[in-house]
Amino acid sequence: MSEGYQFLKAVRERDGDEATAKLNEPGTVVVNARDFTSGETGLHIVTQRRDLIWVKFLLQRGANPDVADKKGVTPLQIASSLGFVEGVETLVKAGANVDRGNSAGETPLMSAVHRRDTAMVRLLLANGADPDRSDNSGRTARDYALLMNGNGQILEEFRQADEKRKAAQDGRSYGPN
């Protein structure tokens, strides 16, 4: 069995001692090892089980928050689709791209809109998510919100984010002062 396989097995089994031993081997890059069949990393695994302690541990050990599995799904996409607020906050703080889409172009913000998760929408918008980024079908998170009945709160979040973005742009000056 490869080092990567053994590391991912330890992560799946929540064997902190074995995972740490693999990470402590000199010159190892096992923290971003990928499952051969799915392309998942340890960070995908622990995000799916909503395990904030392991998420923070792997990020501190150098896990890439933007690595995608074979379907283009990142840990941030998983956290958003699960409503795992603490996971989203931690991944964003670690530098995860809030607008990265999966293989269908669906962004974490679109996942939050589909779930009608206003708090998640607010969090992603506050961290720079673009409500007008389109997926592979050409629809945006804003489009999906408009298509769904009873999404007034989410549309209000988009309106407030638009106002904040416009206010920030109005305050900019170009050229010499």
Description of the molecule:
- With 177 residues, the chain is an all-alpha fold.
- The chain has helices at residues 3-12, 16-23, 42-48, 52-60, 75-82, 85-93, 108-114, 118-126, 141-147, 152-170.
- α3 packs parallel to α5 and α5 (75-82) packs antiparallel against α6.
- It contains ten helices and no strands.
- 53% of the residues lie in helices and 0% in strands.
- The model has no long low-confidence stretch (mean pLDDT 94).
Could you provide a short overview of the structure?
With 177 residues, the protein is an all-alpha fold. The chain is 53% helix and 0% strand.
Q: How confident is the prediction overall: mean pLDDT?
A: 94
Written as H for each helix and E for each strand, in order along the chain, the element string is HHHHHHHHHH
What structural class do the secondary elements suggest? Answer: mainly alpha
> Uncertain regions: pLDDT < 50 for 5+ in a row?
none
Distance between the termini: 63 Å
DSSP strand content: under 5%
Major beta sheet summary? none
